[in-house]
Sequence to fold (770 residues):
Amino acid sequence: MQSLNFRVSSHLKSIIGRDLITDDFVAVFELVKNSFDAGASEVTLHFTEDSIFIIDNGKGMSYRDLVDKWLFVAYSAKQDGSEDGLHLDYRESIQSKRYAGSKGVGRFSCDRLGEVLSLQTKVESSTDVNRLDVIWSAFESSSKDDFINIDINHSVSQDFSLCDGVDFDYDCGTVLEISGLREAWGRSKLKDLKSSLAKLINPFGTQKNDFSVFIKARSELDEDARLSNLKDEPSPNEIVNGPVDNFIFQTLQEKTTWLKTWIVDGVVITELIDRGKVIYRISEDNEFKELDGSGFECNIFYLNRSAKATFARRMGVNSVSFGSVFLFKNGFRVYPVGEELDDSFGIDRRKQQGHSRYLGTREILGKIDVYGDDSSFKESSSRDKGLIETPAYIQLKEAFWKKCLLRLENYVVGVSWRVKYDADLLDSSHLTRDELRSKIIEVINKLSNSPGVRVEYFAEDFLTLIDSKAKDFDKTIESLSNIAQKTGNDELVEEIKSAKFRYQEMLKAESEAVQYAERERAERHKAEALASKVEKDLKREQERNLFLTSLQSHDKDVLESLHHQVIIYASNAINLIEASLFSMHSRRQVPQQDLEETLENLLLLNQQVIAASRFATKANFKLDSNSITEDLALYLDQYVEKICKVYKSKILIEVVRFSREFVIQFKPIEISIIIDNLIDNAIKANASYMKIEISKSQSNVLLVSLEDNGVGIPSEISNIESIFDKGITTTSGSGLGLYNVRQLLQNINGTIELAKSSFSGTTFEIKVYS
Fold:
């Protein structure tokens, strides 16, 4: 029997070169990854007019390395475990080693980029620089030529031979010079390359600071200098020359909702952070056995409108164009997972089934990080088709869905999407609203009821201060009680018992107050029936006047209505005082925080009583219900013009209204408290004039600008945003005015920001979303 052997055509070069790697950026990725595998800490991509130099400070190659490894097609020392003494225990050592590739064909990426390759390399223990010159077209003369018979020239020198402006300043390393470029590399393409390289190296990886990539292009230095000298600082991706970096993820951690999941020692740990505030941390036994020891970690961000704006401003590209959820294997990106039009995880296919219920790739940004060899996570040979469906990769996708995306989605849909203005907020202060805190408790309780899930931590300062007047208080307090029992928090259990008692007492007092008010209401309704004919004859003109200043208008009907409202406020105050006294009698010592909270609530109730008194002396506005549905712009205009005349001896107020028909539901007393606080602050700042402009910044957004000529915010307050915090005062007040303003505005989907402050005055901007 005769033995035969395969012959290999020289055409193999094209099959594993240009035909396999069809994208210039992927070709550059492969060569940069080779430098990473060689232990380099720096790689420089130097672009000249007709060449690309890829220079690294890796360990370099000896003559034997060139012959036995580089020229040995499809051989990979990483695969057989001989690279750097790497043995067969690959899974255990892969995270401590640095290996991005394992095919043994990445070197043929040079063929994609140019016609000629000159490789120069040097190891630290030698003075020789070994050089190979490869002319790729030599492999294309005839497909009948044997691959191994195509000559490649080798030479040895004592130094690197480079063109002017290109230097090699290391003791060892490799230089790839690719000439006869197949495509031009203009500024636009270089910027795209820099942006793509920023996504190549895992921005969360522990090795990020150990590996740097630089781009140098002398032809773009002048334009870079021009952009750098502009008044507005350009985004990093607008500048071609310099380091390739990816810092956006660190920025986003403080700006939006972030979920992190990782697997360690057979346990899956999930942590959710909302604008820098840890909401919960849970753990459970790992059901994805193929991911044990893989270092699985997923960081995924929800991008609200504010986070998207921050991203675009910092990166010079919108988040949609940047990508969505990237996959990193051994610290390097798996292409094209996460690209703009890629949906490897089926996120957008599901989004189409319910736009208002599910997150899509346009609303999230993040990464999945794993370590492992090709037996677990095997890249497609085409280098731009992601990973092959191995059992480990299938479980990776399942873990991403169950433990990452769905949990982030449950929080975003259940909490963040509950208020329209959440999309514009950069901090977690709005989470103090009772409605949102109740939803957070609901999310954590649902998690705690999931089989096998252990609640390791939750934000107690959010969850223990639920107001007994909050909506769905019964349901919320039961959920909180369930969490407290499962986490063994005895102190919280006692607090919940006390809260339940206060709630029952409040219901009793409120019931008595309502019964009294209802009797008063019945009498008033009798009077209304008698006066109905007169009211019909007094229809308002085109624009309803909500406030009438005639003293003749203070009839029995209006006064009884105001009387009813004051009773409700006073009853709430009485209930609050009684509950506080009960707490003081049942404890030896009442925490200062509880006393502060009681006094703050009493202050707010007192402001409501004062506002009602102003109505009684100046207005014919009916307060027989807590909320009304009216034109807020008109209400603000007439309130300032008619009611705020009480301030005329202290400050001149001018109102300019450009907006009509902004009809929403609101509580008149709360709007009065908001305006009174801001006017009072202006007076305390020695302002003699205030201008209030009411307009629409968008069809569904009412903008109210309040500008005064006072002394502004004191210079000792360095953090301007803190003026809205509880206890911070810019005058001699209690430090609750602006805090209450922001809290009350949240009840009507509103926000307030300090637009300007100087020694010549202060401007606040209020936005209300319909």
Residues 14 and 20 are 8 Å apart (CA to CA).
